[in-house]
Amino acid sequence: MAAWLPLIRIVHALPQELDRKLREEVGIPHNYYGMLATLSSQPDRTLTMGDLARLTASSPSRLSHAITALEQRGWVARRQCGEDKRRQFVTLTDDGLAMLEEVAPSHVAHVRQLVFDRLTPEQVRQLAAIGSAIVGNAELGEA
């Protein structure tokens, strides 16, 4: 319980605080920012909707709703995958990349303030090891 209860508080409180700050700055929740950041790190800033859902731990319906909202802002573009009408690509646009580059320094500073500035270098290494042990390269639900 001594480890579990603080973890539960982190899992709930940290995303809420990150959401609050990003909504103030750019009007989007943290999970939308994570989708954009994930796209920014990909070749050609593009992924299939399925791969983006997997990498951001989003359900297909939640991802579709998010991508629609991000498309309306001009930050992503969606297109069909060739002749396969069931699959779509989503690409981070130049405007989306510009927004990320503008917001990233503030977001990184906020994450540092909330998490990393409170930890020693050894604790940061431990956090990385713990996170990798829990999540690893697989989906959390595949344990």
Report on the structure:
- The mean pLDDT is 91.
- With 143 residues, this protein is of the alpha+beta class.
- The chain has 6 helices and 3 strands; from the N terminus they run H-H-E-H-H-E-E-H-H.
- Helices cover 63% and strands 13% of the residues.
- The chain has helices spanning 4-26, 30-40, 49-55, 60-72, 94-114, 121-135, and strands at residues 46-48, 76-81, 84-92.
- It has one domain (11-136): Winged helix-like DNA-binding domain superfamily/Winged helix DNA-binding domain (Arc Repressor Mutant, subunit A), CATH 1.10.10.10.
- It has a 3-stranded antiparallel sheet.
- Helix 1 packs across helix 5 (94-114).
- Residues 1-136 form the HTH marR-type domain.
- It holds the Pfam family MarR_2.
- It comes from Nocardioides aromaticivorans.
- This is MarR family transcriptional regulator.
- InterPro entries: HTH_MarR-typ (IPR000835), MarR/SlyA-like (IPR039422), WH-like_DNA-bd_sf (IPR036388), WH_DNA-bd_sf (IPR036390).
Quick gist of this model?
This is MarR family transcriptional regulator. The chain has about 140 residues and is of the alpha+beta class. The protein contains six helices and three strands.
